Structure formats: C-alpha cells, structure tokens
Inverse folding.
C-alpha cells in the first residue's frame, strides 16, 4: 500500500470498484450536499467531489469532501489547475490531507469561458500532468515543487482523467502513458457511449503495459433524454455519442426516454466489465444521483464490499 | 450640376475609407463612388476592394450616427453617359432627404 | 509585431470631450501594419471625430500627425512643436507608444485611441494572429516552433486536454487546438519524440508575473 486510501485497498485486493460523482452546491448549502451524499452511501466505494466543474462557482471541493467524509464516504478530491497556482494547490493538498482525505484526481479543468465567471483570469500555472507529479513527489519524496521538505507530507492516492474520445486519437494512449509515468495510480475515463472505440483504447493501453501500472475505471453517464444525448454530442468538449445511441433514445416518446437511458447505461456497464484491464466504473449521473443505486442494482454491482 | 465636385482616379481601387470620411468631414454632403463592374476591372480586384472599403466607411458612419446613405457605391460602365446622369440625379434627390450637414470652419477642413 | 484595434468612437469621445484642442498622433510601425493606428487610420479617425463633433455642434481644434514610431524618444520629439498648442494628445499608438508619449510630454494628458491586444504575426492581409506572450524563456525549439503557452488556451505543456476536438479548441471553434498544431508540425519534422518527455512546471518569474521587465545594456548607451 502506498497510502491509507480505502480505494487503493479495494483495487489492490482485485475488487471491481464503483466510484460516482457528486457536485457540490452553488453556495454554502450543506443539507443539499448531504442529501446527495446519502443517496450514494453504501452504493459506491468512493465519491468524486468536483472542483468548480464547467467553471461554475460551487462550494470548494476540499470543504465538500470533508462534509461527505463526515457522512461516512471515501472522498476523492478533484483538483483543477485552472483556478489556483502552485502555492494554492499544494496548500490545499496539505489541508485536504489534514481533514482525512486520501484520494485526489488531478485535472486541468474546463476553460473558464464555459462558466459563470467568464471575465476571470485563467491561472493554469500547472497542467494536470505536472499536478500528478507534484502530488506524487509529496508522497514519495516528501517535498514540494522546488525541493523544500514538508512537515508531515500528504500521502495521496493519485488519480487522473483520460479521454479515449478526444482528438487526436493516436495521442490519447500516449498521453495516458505520460500520466502514468508522472505518478497516476488510477484513471477515470470520460463517459463511454462508443464502446468499440473504448475497446481499441484499452487494447492499446494493454499493449503498452499501462494496465499493469494503473487502475482504469470506465466512465458511465446515464442519458436522461434524447435532448441530453444530442446536446452532449454537439456541445460538450471531448464527448462522443454515436448516432445509433441518439436514434435509439429519440425513437421513444419523451416519458420513456429516461428509462431507456438507464438501460443503455446498464448495458454499457455490463459490456465494459468484460474488457480486460478495466478495474471498475465511474458513474457521472450529474444532478441525477438518486438513479445511481438503481443503475448499479440492475448491473448487479450494488452490493459494495465492507472493508 | 451645382454643388458637384468630380474627382477622377485611375481605378476605384485607389479609394480607401479615410478618403471617404475626410471628404464628408470637409463638408461634402455625400460621396458617390462610381466603379467599373466587378468583372470589368482593368486592375482585376479594384472595384471589389473599393466596395469593401466603402462598407467599412459606412460602418464608421453608423457608429457616428450619420446616415450611411451619404456614401453610395454604383457600378457603371465608363462610357455610360445616361447611366451617369441618372445615378447623379438619384443621389442628389436622396441627399436632399438627409438635410444639410453644417459646414465646418475652414481651419478644420484639411 | 504588436497588434491593436481601434476603440469604439463613443469611448474615445467620452475620454476626450473635456478638451477643446486635440492632437491626434498615429504610429507608422506595428499598428500601421495591422491597420489600426497608421497614417491612414489617423486621417480616418480625425475625420470621424470632426463629423462626430459637428453632429453635437461642438468645434474643438483637431490636428493630425503621424510618427514613424511612437515608442522611441528620437521619433517622439518630432511633434514637440505641435504639443504646446493642444490640451490633449490622442494617441493611435499601442500601449507602449501611449506611455512613451506620456513620459516625454509629461505635462500633457495622453489618451489611447486603441486597445492593444497582442504580439502576433500577419498571416495574410487582414488577418493577424496572436502567437507570443513574452514568457521570457522561449521553448519554441521543443515544440516545433508552435508556442504551447500562447496557442494553447490553457498553456498546457504536456499535451492536449480532453476538450480538443477535430483539431479545434474547446473554447471556440475558430481557435485551432495549439497542441494539434504542435503535434502535426513535429510529425512533419519527424520529431514527435520530443513530446514523450515530461515538461516540468514553467518558471513564470521571467514573465510579467515576476513584475514589469526592464533591460539595461550599457554597451548600447550613448
């Protein structure tokens, strides 16, 4: 074990893990956060707490992680490099660890032009790979950037994101390799609709020996409607929703589309489980967290190991 | 024709936006640009360019709150006397509807 | 060169309306190249101001002039004979020119007529592209002469983000993905191997982040 992370423990024991996403509220609304947290309790092995996702101002990820930990969750602190320089990022890592958080997912973050503070300055002092290495060096060397010693260094279990559906396709696995080399322990992928493209990605990752070094969790997002499918396909960066999926869900009347979306999600889970090298799934049911238990149940993975 | 000033240039493409604004600023009520047809430009691109630059000058007039119709761009064959007379008459009538812009002090007209 | 754009006439008017004599000064270097503040644009702006003031029944004195370069003392001094007769200088120089004028004509208000935007190149007549933000540690040699700091919206140093789609940046469709450009260039040059190495965090201390920069060359002083 590199860390005290419960997620690491489960992955090392060969468990097929389930992580889910939890977005903090657009304010200091603790009860809203706790309600979301309660939906997921017992159904997931760890929960990602997003960091001002899509550059919309929300409760800080560190604070939200701490609150969810209080409920009994194993939080994964998401950190984007868009909003904070290396001083603030390293400082937040110290603080998060002090509050008992043991997992961190290092991301660059959606550009701030997407959010509700378009006039802000984009920091981008570090990129996601440099952040991964920074967290790794904290754990392995006990130093911050520049080499100064840390007083009680955080030992975080390190995650990064991978997008098998962004361009250029040849580059995606090379970028994954760079993240693994920098120190990533686990990977969460962008949500999968094009399963064959994901399979090709996984084949390449295996050929490069990456699945031995890193645990890859397949991203799953249930579609609520045909409208959502079309929106994601057209407007969300790095997202691929194949025509046949859009057609399948559009073919149904509005009231039946949500159930079909869940069906598609369950089928996707069942298919990706079979792909060699997939160590678990990461469910992103944004503002639909209450459906997660149902989806996991239908896929037969609702019962989580208690360790 | 009273109040008419004729400026001959080798090609309408010689015209730039600042010429048009300067002319209006110097007291002209309007500028009628006579250009050869796009496919008849001896210098190939000239009348196309002058058209774009006239549009740019009009955009300035719009921001200034001045009637964009004070700049008119007309394609005309060089020997078309009747066409020229018609264009001038039409433009003069249009300008009258705008009213006169007050003349500015001589020292300003450069 | 430095690329700028002319401000809205309404904003310019707001800034100079309190003055009754205006010296409009252009610059025939960078801002002439990007058609924002050169001799022609100076004539156009002066004419536009005359028309604008005429509409409001005002009649300030407006004088035009154009300098070869507005950021260099020797050139700036050439309008010295005009300055005393005017209450304000309206500069069509870039930010550097405006401030240089203010240093030389220290008792005169200097108002900018342009918004200075970036260091860039003329791709062709009418198209100017930002390509350098003066980080002070040029790494272009490692990235196929495509700048990851400037051409990538997120200043990434280790490859594209997940938002890169069909060679386009997630921010806007008309922005090419800087990393897509870097990879294509290196591929053409047969140097893709340069990208396999980890690029550590950038030292921003030589950029403006470290404070405004100044260079002193004793060998160059008169």
């Amino acid at each position: 074990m590199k860390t005290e992370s419960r997620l690491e423990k489960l992955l090392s024991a060969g468990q097929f893990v389930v992580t889910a996403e939890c977005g903090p509220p657009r304010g200091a609304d603790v009860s809203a956060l706790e309600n979301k947290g309660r939906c997921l309790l017992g159904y997931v092995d760890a929960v990602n707490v997003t960091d001002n996702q899509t550059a919309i101002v929300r409760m800080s990820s560190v604070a939200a992680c701490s609150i969810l930990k209080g409920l009994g969750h194993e939080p994964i602190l998401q950190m984007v490099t868009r909003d904070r320089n290396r001083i603030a990022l390293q400082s937040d890592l110290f603080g998060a660890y002090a509050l008992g958080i043991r997992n961190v997912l290092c991301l660059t973050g959606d550009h701030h032009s997407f959010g509700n503070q378009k006039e802000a300055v984009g920091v981008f002092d570090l990129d996601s790979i440099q952040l991964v290495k920074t967290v790794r060096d904290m754990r392995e060397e006990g130093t911050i950037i520049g080499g100064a010693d840390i007083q009680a260094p955080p030992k975080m279990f390190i995650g990064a994101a991978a997008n098998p559906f962004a361009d250029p396709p040849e580059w995606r696995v090379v970028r994954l390799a760079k993240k693994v080399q920098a120190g990533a322990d686990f990977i969460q992928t962008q949500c999968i609709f094009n399963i064959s493209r994901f399979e090709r990605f996984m084949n390449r990752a295996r050929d490069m020996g990456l699945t031995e070094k890193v645990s890859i969790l397949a991203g799953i997002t249930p579609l609520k409607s045909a409208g959502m499918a079309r929106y994601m396909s057209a407007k969300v960066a790095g997202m691929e929703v194949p025509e046949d999926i859009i057609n399948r869900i559009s073919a149904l009347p509005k009231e039946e589309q949500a159930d079909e979306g869940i069906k598609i999600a369950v089928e996707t889970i069942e298919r990706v489980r079979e792909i060699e090298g997939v160590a678990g799934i990461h469910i992103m049911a944004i503002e639909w967290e209450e459906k997660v238990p149902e989806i996991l149940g239908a896929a037969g993975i609702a019962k989580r190991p208690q360790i | 024709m009273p109040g008419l000033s004729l400026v001959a240039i080798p090609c309408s493409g010689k015209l730039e936006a600042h010429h048009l604004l300067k002319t209006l600023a110097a007291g002209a009520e309007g500028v009628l640009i006579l250009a050869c047809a796009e496919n008849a430009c001896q210098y190939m691109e000239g009348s196309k360019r002058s058209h774009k630059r006239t549009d740019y000058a009009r955009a300035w007039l719009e921001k200034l709150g001045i009637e964009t119709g004070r700049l008119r761009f007309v394609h005309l064959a060089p020997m078309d006397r009747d066409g020229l007379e018609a264009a001038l008459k039409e433009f003069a009538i249009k300008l009258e509807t705008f009213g006169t812009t007050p003349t500015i002090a001589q020292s300003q007209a450069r | 060169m430095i690329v700028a754009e002319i401000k809205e006439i309404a904003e310019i008017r707001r800034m100079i309306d309190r003055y009754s004599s205006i010296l409009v000064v252009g610059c025939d270097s960078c801002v002439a190249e990007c058609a924002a503040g050169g001799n022609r644009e100076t004539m156009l702006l002066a004419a536009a101001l005359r028309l604008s003031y005429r509409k409001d029944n005002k009649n300030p004195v407006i004088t035009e002039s154009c300098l070869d370069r507005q950021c260099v003392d020797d050139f700036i001094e050439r309008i010295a004979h005009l300055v005393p007769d005017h209450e304000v200088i309206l500069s069509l120089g870039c930010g550097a020119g405006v401030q240089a004028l203010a240093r030389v004509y220290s008792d005169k208000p200097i108002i900018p007529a342009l918004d200075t935007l970036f260091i860039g190149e003329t791709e062709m007549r009418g198209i100017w592209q930002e390509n350098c933000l003066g980080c002070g540690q040029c790494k272009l040699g490692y990235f196929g002469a495509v700048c990851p700091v400037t051409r990538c919206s997120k200043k990434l140093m280790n490859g594209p983000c997940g938002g890169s789609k069909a060679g386009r940046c997630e921010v806007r469709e008309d922005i090419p993905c800087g990393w897509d450009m870097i990879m294509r260039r290196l591929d053409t040059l047969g140097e893709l191997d340069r990208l396999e190495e980890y690029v550590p965090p950038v030292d921003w201390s030589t950029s403006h982040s470290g404070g405004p920069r100044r260079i002193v060359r004793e060998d160059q002083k008169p």
Remarks:
- The mean pLDDT of chain A is 94.
